[in-house]
Amino acid sequence: MFKKLIEESTGKSPWLFHINAGSCNGCDIELVSVLTPRYDAERLGFKLAGSPRHADIVVVTGPITQQSLPRVLRSIEQVPDPKCIVTMGSCPQSGNVFRGSYSVAGPLSKYVHVDVDVAGCTPKPEAVIDGLYLATQILQEKRKGMKK
Amino acid sequence: MNFLNPQHFPIFAIMLYFLGAFLIVLFGKNRAARNCIAFLATGLALTLMILLVKPIMIDGGIIAYWMGSRVPAGGYAIGIALEVDALGLFFGLLIATAVFVSCLYSFSYMSEDDNEPQYYTLFLMLCGGVMGLVLSGDLFNMFIMVEILTFAAVALTAFRNRVTGALEAAFKYLVVGCIGSTCILAGTIILYQQAHTLNLAQLATIIPLCKGTNVSIAFALLFIGFCTKAFIVPFHPLAADAHGAAPAPVSVLISGVLTKSGIYGIIRLAYFLFQTMNLGTMQFWLVFLGSVSMFVCVTMALAQHDFKRLLAFHSISQIGYVLTAIGLATALGASAGLYHAMNHTLFKGLLFLTAGAVLHETGTTDLGKLGGLSKKMPHTTVLFLIGAASISGIPPFNGFASKWLIYQAAYEKAAETGNIGFAFVTIVALVTSTLTLASFVKVTQSVFFGQLPKECENAKEVSFGMRFAMGILAVLCTVTGLFPNLVQTYLTGPAAKTLFHVTRYINAMLGEGYAESAMGASAPEAATRTIEIVGVWNPVNWLALLMIALLAICIVAIASKYDAVRENKSEKVEAKYSLFYGGEDTVFSQVGGGDLFWGFKHNWRHYFSFMHDLHSGIVNDYSLWAVIALALAMVYALIVL
Amino acid sequence: MITLNYIASFFLIVLGLYCIVMKYNLVKTVIGLSIMDYGVNLLIITIGYNPGGTAPIFTAGELQAASYFVDPIPQALTLTSIVIGACVTAMSLSLVMKLKEMYGTLDTREIRRLRG
Amino acid sequence: MILDALKTLIYVLIFPGFLFCFLTGLLLAGIDRKLVARMQKRVGPPILQPFYDFFKLCGKQTIVPAAANKTVFLVAPLLGLAALVVLQLFIPVFQFQIPAFANVADLIVILYLLLIPAVSIILGGASTGSPYAGIGLSREMVTVLACELPLVLVLLSVGRSVGVAIGAKEGITFSLSTIVRYQLESGSLICKASLIPAAIAFLLVIPGETGNHPFDAAEAETEICEGMLAEYSGAPLGVYKLSHAIKMLTMTSLFVMLFFGGIGTGIGNLVALIGLTGGAAAAVTMLLDVLVLFVLCVIVTAVGISFVHAVTARLKIEQIFKYYWTVVSALALLSLVLVWYGL
Question: Does the beta-carbon distance from B158 to C98 stay under 8 Å?
Fold first, then answer.
């Protein structure tokens, strides 16, 4: 019963940790707007966490610059399992307009397994919520498959 | 002569220390002989003190011992006397315990110093001086003992004279200490002029009959003299300097034993010698000084960045509690004050010893240079935490038990007299306790937790001997905290009771009925004050409940695999287990003691900078404070008493 | 006559205190301590003095209720106090020597590593 | 004997101990979050959200940083939780005070018992070695310091006021059960004009003591990564969150007992009116009392925590200190002076 409770809860309380990997701030603003009264992602239990140790979902924005790559990877590494990695905006998925630049190391999927991609430049808040919701489903699946 | 008669125990206890000191000079070259003598002297003295508990504390006897059997003739005390009542024995017990533990600790702590024989000689002289002071029944003997202990303490402060500031601290202490001793001498002699006797009991009888300017001045002189020994504000910088430089076991003696001798002197003065000079007026003086010491020293401690210096300021802050409680002149206040005096000896001794352990292993006590020792010295950390919890008044340790009584006493006094000033004293006491906690959080963070600096990599757990000595004190801290009722019944209660039975003290010395006949109507009535505690606090039950709750929570936690943690297994620290620095690699970034509590210090910045300037470190300034304090005390004594 | 003694001892004590408080030289501080001590010693002796009293040396037969002598106790006290004063001076001077070695100065205003 | 032990066990584990604290504490936290959301015109999380959070955290990995002292890291949260649960035992539910525990701790002791959870979180944070934790614990300690003065003043005023009113020999009382009993007999303390400033001061202290917004500089997630909790993950973090929720319950119920202790009386009469007697009546009364207590706690939370949260921005740490030691302390001091001179 306890196990079931945990599994149920895992999907209902996803805490986000947001990493800016060289983003233009468009996505960052959009992510914050998801938590505003208009969209209110908190009704699904979403909350911004301050430290990767508390996070369930890592939201990465920006095209993963050379400078930020080791930091991004380290921070992702520090998130306890089960965790979900969500890329937000086109940058971390393809490099977007920065693709091919000498300073861009992306896409993120080259380095870690990405669970959800929310495309768009920037994605609409509705899309972000949808993507995050999808991530919670994946999170729940991961939790079921996880041995403590 | 029957040597097993308890009558002789007090003089034996004093003699043991001095004899030990003498023998160490003779045979101290050999390490084993030296340690053996020191151990025997301190151990036997402690045993004698414990043996005296039954006849004095429980049966309520008073031992009056006349040297050379020169009993009083014609109502005049001519000979030199030892008089041990419950109060004296209480302090004697404290001293013997602290000395014994500190001696045990010294065996391993001082083993790397040179001149060890001299150390033990001075050490035992200091102990003998303090023991003689508290067991003496003669004012001039008290002065001699004060001088002996001051010398020994000064010499011991300067013992490690290569340590920065050791000589400086010793010199300052000597100068101001001598001003204090001279005050005691001058006060003694003025009293002698009035009463033509030096016996405490007889003085207590005669002084009330010859009130006047001279007696008031004598009071002021003696009071300031004992204040310098207890390091009450404005003499607190001396304590801070001396503790910072002295070896840890000596710090234990200075804070746990020497300050107690000052407190003992003040109690004898206020409650016995000058008991009829209206305690009420003395109250304000004592309570005021106590509260000021309490608050000033705790704020000074917050601003320190040296482990031992910080502890030194706390020491005086706690003495402030004791003085405040004593000054309330209620049965509960006296009992609470003595209780706190005892606890102060125990927890402050423990803390100084842990500071010594840290110094021993790392070579520094600078809070900015230490950190993360909890992984290297786990036992010391636990012992330190017990001491820190005790001094900060965290239940269920002993500091809380006595501080709680002090709050009650102060507030009861406020309610009884309707004087809102005592309510503010209660508030100061309560807030000071939290400030104490704050500064110990600072020490905890910057010495035992946080990150380990490179320089401390080689630190390891200290030797068993040192841990054993600390362990004794830690156990005592816990036990006296858990059973406040027992402590009150068998130790502080009888001792506090004697404060209000001056006539008994006089009669035990000079024969039954002496006080009544000599003093006539002015004989203080044998006050039947009882200890009334408003609040309720039952540490054992609380601890039992906490243990049940903790156990239950632990069972639930373990059942749900709380302890199934992921930790770094490989040699190198993997990214997953490195600290979070916003994604950066781990760097050394210990948050040192000086960086903490900005929010508090910022609001008090003017006060702190003022205090910093005031503690200039110039010996002239400190002497000036002493003179000013003396002048104020005299003015107060002349006007009010 | 005896009043002069009291005034002198008071003067000595105050002079000693003045010396300790106002002089920035370590040796002068030590001198101040000594002067203060002398003042107190003088005070003790003065208190024990009875005008016209004889030395307190009697054989058992001579001592009567009417014997008039100076109080011997303060004299004993003074002796002790003088010894202690000498110890204080010795101790403080040895400290001064060490301080001079370590700090290279005798000025109290420069010997203040411990402060704040 | 065994029966007594069993009873104690039930008190500690179920009511008013662990289980009760767990349920009501988290529920209170959920209501608080919902209320804040509603005040900000949001839908807000479900009321059971803190439960989800807690269970989720239980299911996550616990990572012990390499620099941390593992024992302290893991034990500190449990110790804090246990201390809080035990503390709750000493706070009566109107006339229902467990007789065995009435003589264990009084108001002043409770003041110090409240420090233990704070100390445990400080120790836990310090043990990780994180610099964020260092800053966090510094702020936490300053917040505790800031709250201490007004809290002390409030408790002393209440102790004096009730002590005089019941004619205690010493003129003061610190026994919580005495204070509540007095209120049941002669009306809640909030009705005393002299204690109204104290009540307001206490209300203002609650968010500071629990570390709620806007006094959460110690756990500011946006600037210092939740300070002392920065390195915590999984179950220990969940325990800290739980402790935080329980602390809200403790502080609000303490407030209710100190200032609204008289409200429980009407209920007993109501039960008598219906015609219940004996054990059933006692049970129903207690149940109703608990309900009333909870409702009052919710109201206090709404006013003292949620409303303040919704309308203010986070204060800097030195502002918190200044605020508590000036405005709030002045209010409490006013109360003390009024009580002292019998107004």
Answer: yes
Q: Is B543 on the interface with D (CB under 8 A)?
A: no
Of B560, B564, B575, the CB nearest to A78: B575
For the whole model, what pTM was predicted? 0.90
Domains of chain C, residue spans = 2-52+70-103
Spans of all domains in chain B: 6-549+594-640
Number of folded domains that form chain A: 1
Whether B178 and C98 lie within 8 Å, measured CB to CB: no
* CATH number of the domain enclosing A102: 3.40.50.12280
Q: Chain D residue with minimal CA distance to B532?
A: D170
How close B560 gets to chain D, by Cα (Å)?
8
Percentage, residues of chain D above pLDDT 90:
1
Q: What is the 3-state secondary structure (H, E, C) of chain D?
A: CHHHHHHHHHHHHCCCCHHHHHHHHHHHHHHHHHHHHHHCCCCCCCCCHHHHHHHHHHCCCEEECCCCCHHHHHHHHHHHHHHHHHHHHCCCECCECCHHHCCCECHHHHHHHCHHHHHHHHHHHHHHCCHHHHHHHHHHHHHHHHHHHHHHHHHHHHHHHHHHHCCCCCCCCCCHHHHHHHHHHHCCHHHCHHHHHHHHHHHHHHHHHHCCCCCCHHHCHHHHCCHHHCCCCHHHHHHHHHHHHHHHHHHHHHHHHHHCHHHHHHHHHHHHHHCCCHHHHHHHHHHHHHHHHHHHHHHHHHHHHHHHHHHCCCCCHHHHHHHHHHHHHHHHHHHHHHHHCCC
Domain that holds residue A41: 11-145
Residues in B touching D132 (Cβ below 8 Å): 580
- Domain of residue D270: give its range: 2-340
Q: How many CB atoms lie within 10 A of CB B29?
A: 11
For the cut 80, the answer to whether the pLDDT of residue A116 exceeds it is yes
C9 in reach of chain B (CB within 8 A): no
Alpha-carbon gap: D39 to the closest alpha carbon of chain B (Å): 30
Among A67, A74, A77, A80, smallest CA distance to A21 is for A67
Best B143, B619, B624 member to test C by mutation, with max C CBs in 10 Å, is B619
* Residue of chain C nearest B613, judged by CA positions: C116
Which residue in chain B has the smallest CA separation from A1? B560
* pLDDT of res. A13: 85
Cβ distance of C96 and B179 shorter than 8 Å: no
Q: Does D222 touch chain A (CB under 8 A)?
A: yes
D323 touches chain B (CB under 8 A): no
* Contact by Cβ (8 Å): B45, B257: no
Mean pLDDT, rounded, for A44-52: 85
Tell me whether residues D55 and A40 touch, CB distance under 8 A.
no
Cα distance from D22 to chain A (closest Cα, Å)? Answer: 15
When divided into structural domains, chain D yields a total of 1
Per-residue pLDDT tens over the stretch B192-216:
888 888 888 888 888 777 777 888 8
Residue with token string 């945990």: A6
- A abuts C (3+ Cβ pairs < 8 Å): no
Q: Which CATH number fits domain C2-52+70-103: 3.40.50.2300, 1.10.150.20, 1.10.287.3510, 1.10.10.10?
A: 1.10.287.3510
Is D37 in Cβ contact with A42 (below 8 Å)?
yes
Cβ <8 Å between B553 and D159? no
Write down the ipTM of this complex.
Answer: 0.86
